[in-house]
Specification:
- It is a single chain.
- It is built from 7 helices and 4 strands; from the N terminus they run αααβααβαββα.
- The chain has 131 residues and is mainly α.
- Helix 4 packs across helix 5 (67-83) and helix 4 runs parallel beside helix 6.
- Helix content is 60%, strand content 9%.
- It has a single domain (3-130), classed as Helicase, Ruva Protein, domain 3 (Orthogonal Bundle), CATH 1.10.8.
Amino acid sequence: MSNAMSSEIDLLRQRKALELRKKMLLSQEKSQPAQPALAKLSSRETVRRILEGRGVEVLETARRYYPKEVGQIEDTLAGLLESGRLKGPVSGEELYSFLRRIGLVFSMDVKIRVKEHGELKTLEEKFRDSH
């Protein structure tokens, strides 16, 4: 399979997955006209406004691996937001899952923390303190 053909197949798969995600996220409510404030923002800023939790971190990590694709995804999502067909918030976990489903595979820095005496500690700190 040629590289161009492989790229076209990947692009088609991404488009289909994006369509599926779009259908999942469509609001059950009536579409409301876009707010003028949203229309003046860049696609990146528009999408960032609906991200919560580690959403921005997930988006920026994905951008390091796939700058072109993330830009296209932001443009599409911003258009859906501006038209009122997509509403937030979108968590970091939802965004990560969506990006992986459309073929953008990347790793996030994951730290496990334990709450001890009202304080969050990494596992390394907990084991160090217990000895």
